[in-house]
Amino acid sequence: MSRDHGIMNRESLTELSEILWRQVFIRFPEWQEYAAIVDSEANGNYKRLYLRVHSPADDESYLSILERDDCIEVSFSDGDPPGGAERQMVCEEGSESLCVGAVIDFIQEIIDEKVVIGRERSSWLSGHKPLPPQFIATSEIEANRKRLVSVRSWKGRYNWEQVGPA
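RESULT FIELD:
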């Protein structure tokens, strides 16, 4: 994956990445330093936008945003394997700006800690392998606490890990 940092040549961005670029940096101008332009999966002549921003709560947690052809993937990770919770928003042709607006709204919910990530207990069904985290509304944490082993939020207000065996 090739990356260009700093002042970037945006002329080669896909149309969706260009819209994402404008809207993300209008809302979060301080995130420009975390932007990278990476190769497009769909078209070798174009590039796409990728951001990875670390949480202010700890060094392990991060939010990533990646344009993938006709969708935008938002991921929030606690840094543990097998990866972060992901949400992919499909952007239909002609409604890219609305789609990117929905992405920005979802990112804001993560930052405002209205949405967190929670890891469920592994079971014999998963081969006792760690399960990836899932997005959970903050209002649903308590109702799900018995099946969760950890919760991570952007600013750390809701961070919680189960101590010892269940």
